[in-house]
């Protein structure tokens, strides 16, 4: 748990945050030209932590510490608001804090190589796509907490979530039983040694790794602390099919986008309907076609 202490420094308020005994000084601000909400230390800590976690602020330097100016923090909040479709107030207002608490994908919205504020993530480069078109998949571990989803249902939902992408791009997915699957699918909890620990119900709900050389390429993980559901009302659990479609987008090379209608928007948007009838938003189709080209329709012989 992080602790905070407020000091005076050059007539500015300074929040000293101690993450694991590392001093990380941050210039914080409580007033703007707009009326700012009354924020608790926990809310401020959560806000800065969130902005760092998802690419809007650089991580703290573990040796020297990191000084964030008021201007940098304002830009980071505005970038997050712009990407999330909110009014760009530059302060941690209630709408912004609310979006930060929305269940979402673990992957950052901006890449580490970019300026931490003010720009969208660059388009996925050709290196971030599979160099083969036939990809194998396997559900290695199944959800333990869900009494609603049996193993066959989970496998069927994975099949149809992958089919969403193969229906429009020249990719073929086939399920295998062995340990050599290109896309390994796991339901796991907390810290599972991949750099993206889960955090219990809500918060981050799943993530997948982009194609590439690393041994985890394509692997997709779901938080087993979530109440995974299928064909349930929005307020009852997390729709597995909708989340799987999003994560498999990452597994074939797509990054997050700020487009409100996109399945690759980082925030959980609720169920998307019948897997047999679901059609990807046009925004997502275009991005897949840019990576792999279009799926060629095979004409049946007369």
Automatic annotation (TrEMBL):
Q: Check the record and name the Gene3D superfamilies matching this protein.
A: Collagenase (Catalytic Domain)
Q: Which GO terms describe its molecular function?
A: metalloendopeptidase activity; zinc ion binding
Q: How does it sit in the membrane?
A: Lipid-anchor; GPI-anchor
Quote the cofactor binding remark: Binds 2 Zn(2+) ions per subunit. Can bind about 5 Ca(2+) ions per subunit.
Q: Where does Zn(2+) 1 bind?
A: 192, 194, 207, 221
Q: Which organism is this entry from?
A: Alosa alosa
Question: Principal place where this protein is found?
Answer: membrane
List, separated by semicolons, the cofactors it needs.
Zn(2+); Ca(2+)
The entry's protein name is Peptidase metallopeptidase domain-containing protein
GO CC term (a single one): extracellular space
Q: Which residues bind Ca(2+) 3?
A: 199-200, 223, 226
Q: Where does Ca(2+) 1 bind?
A: 224, 226
Q: Where in the cell is it found?
A: Cell membrane
Fetch the Pfam families from UniProt. Answer: Peptidase_M10, PG_binding_1
| Annotated keywords | Calcium, Cell membrane, Disulfide bond, Glycoprotein, GPI-anchor, Hydrolase, Lipoprotein, Membrane, Metal-binding, Metalloprotease, Protease, Repeat, Zinc, Zymogen
> Which residues are recorded as binding Zn(2+) 2?
105, 246, 250, 256, 264
Residues that span the membrane, as ranges: none
Q: Where does Ca(2+) 2 bind?
A: 182, 219
Active site per database record: 247
Family of the protein in this entry? Belongs to the peptidase M10A family.
Classify the source by domain of life. Answer: Eukaryota
